[in-house]
UniProtKB/TrEMBL annotation:
GO terms for cellular component: cell outer membrane. This is Outer membrane protein N. SUPFAM superfamilies: Porins. The gene is ompD. The keyword Signal applies.
């Protein structure tokens, strides 16, 4: 999926004149309840006052869900952050570390 926005995204009070975003996800649902997933997200800020064009997001996420039944599932996701520590990233306090998420969901 590709998206583009103009004068909408705010970074600490500074409006980004233009952003370009790309996201892609690949998943497969097995009959026995397992759903592996891999995804990619990228967002670039363009024409930012005081900075050259800079990456806002850039990561790969690998995860899996397991569905016990229609109401309950568990998941885990590992996000591999590909952001460089540029002046823009450091000035806006963006995280450049990898992240791990785990959880359990019950839907009523």
């Amino acid at each position: 999926m590709y998206g583009e926005s103009h004068n909408m995204n705010s970074d600490d009070g500074d409006v980004v004149n233009k952003t370009q975003n790309v996201e892609a996800v690949l998943q497969y649902q097995f009959d026995f309840g397992l759903r592996p997933s891999i995804g990619y997200s990228y967002s670039k800020a363009l024409d930012v006052a005081g900075y050259k064009d800079s990456d806002r997001l850039n990561y790969i996420e690998i995860g899996t869900w397991y569905y016990f039944n229609k109401n309950m599932n568990v998941y885990t996701a590992y996000q591999i952050n590909l952001l460089d520590k540029s002046d823009y990233v450091l000035a806006h306090g963006q995280n450049t570390d990898d992240q791990l998420a785990v959880g359990i969901v019950y839907q009523f």
